[in-house]
Amino acid sequence: MRWRTPIRLVALASAFTLATVAPSTAGPFTRSPLKVVSVSSPFAGCDISGQPGVNFLNSEVEPWVEVNPTDPNNVIAVWQQDRWSNGGARGLLTAVSHDGGGSWATTFPHFSTCAGGTQANGGNYERSSDPWVSFSPNGDAYQISLSVNMVNDPATAILVSKSSDGGDSWSEPTTLARDPSGVAPFLFNDKESITADPNDANYAYAVWDRLRFPSDRANFNAQHAFSFRGDAMFARTTDGGATWEPARAIFAPSKLQSTIGHQIVVRPSGELVDLFTLFQGSGNNPPGASLAMMRSTDKGATWSAPQVIDKIRFIGAFDPDTGRPIRAEGFVPEVAVDPNNGNLYATWQDTRFAGVDQIAFSMSTDGGDTWSDPVKVSQTPPNPDPGNEQAWVPAVHVAADGTIAVTYYDFRFNTPAAGVPTDHWMVHCHPSAATTCAEAGAWGNELRLTDTSFDVEQLPFARGPFGYFVGEYEGLSSAGTTFRPLFAVGTGDPANRTDIVTATAS
């Protein structure tokens, strides 16, 4: 095991002794039968006139899932319902279980017009996207949305709603940010997430990126201008969601830098860690991408400057038969924290292992001061066709006993026959005094989460050049030592291209 050069933040410099330990084999996991959580679209009769793009009715993508810390039988799942080809969906659908996933009921916050949003309740937007949900330690839940107008009064907004009954009902939206996106200067909010503080039910944290450059939406050459930049935006509640502080930039570069994929985790010490991708550079050369982090020791009142953890090398997933892109570009990392010892775990798509995107993993045992060298944790076997060795869209989560699980999609069963068989998988590692998950050999006992392969070429198509789409992230949570993955699968039915499915693995 080799550890990278320490990342030091002046206010948080610390010295930890890292023991060198040998990896051991993790025990086998089994899963319960898959259960379809999604339903026929409740938004099918909603027609927002004049919308560009193609709407894939009954398609469900980009799910997230959380388990109530006060009641392991209470599970909330969220996803995009009826995805548009050029971004967003008719609404964010929410499924709630109170019997550990045995049965589910659907509801939804008023994040879009099709989901009951009006001018009066603050949810009158044509589309919503990027769903996320998080439980407070008292059982309250927060859900967040990127809500968008494409035609009428073009704008992007970040909306939050709260549930105090396990997800059965939701408050009217609170607007954290709203920026015009159809005029100069071009402002675009994107890729938000929300984290309820597991140590203090009064606090919850929202974070996202906000592109800004002095041009209109149609002039994409502005992204190569010296003035192009993207802020890291942050808002918090300190009173259990009764009010939210005004959104503010916690990183506001002056030129040629932007961020994406922000996620905040909270260590047992109370320290906040925001993990994200930092882009640097512009012009004709491809921008450099790095895994980066910021930290706060005062519940988000102040933040450190961004610190680079490692370079991210990605080309994005692609159809191994045709080369056509898959909307899994590789710049959205995932992060998890061990609730017992505060260890940090990061995973992302990276080409360093085989020249195509596979799943990289790195960890820190000292709050981010040092990080292990990335190792490949996806178990996709070698193949003469490099395209079939791809692994993409990882998720990472830590169970109560410290077991780490990582999920991903791959193409290992692809053949020259028509279509591209696609599956979802989980690997795990049991860290202990004799095992460090920083070694590739500690990861094994791969578990197939799909019953049968689905054809990636039958998925909804997202935004022209980006390709087939299940989401830029998938859900993974746990109750005790039992993991609960939630993910999108293709159905092969043009009238219902995807479903959201779940299971338990333990």
Could you walk me through the main structural features you see in this protein, from its secondary elements to its overall organization?
By secondary structure, the chain is mostly beta strands. Helices cover 0% and strands 43% of the residues. It is built from no helices and 31 strands. Strands 22, 23, 24, 25 and 26 form a five-stranded antiparallel sheet that branches. Strands 1-31-30-29 form a four-stranded antiparallel sheet, with no helix packed on it. Strands 2-3-4-5 form a four-stranded antiparallel sheet, with no helix packed on it. Strand 30 and strand 31 form a beta hairpin. The radius of gyration is 21 Å and the shape is globular.
Question: Which characteristics define this entry?
Answer:
31 strands; globular; 4-stranded antiparallel β-sheet; 506 residues; disordered N terminus; 5-stranded antiparallel β-sheet; mainly beta
How would you state the average pLDDT, rounded?
A: 90
Gyration radius, to the nearest Å? 21 Å
Helix fraction by DSSP (H/I, runs of at least 4): under 10%
**Structural class from helices and strands?**
mainly beta
User: Roughly how many Å apart are the termini?
Assistant: 28 Å
| Tally of DSSP β-strands | 31
Shape: globular
The total of helices stands at 0
* Content of β-strand: 35-45%
Tell me the quaternary state: single chain
Which stretches are poorly predicted, pLDDT < 50 over at least 5 residues? 1-25, 216-227
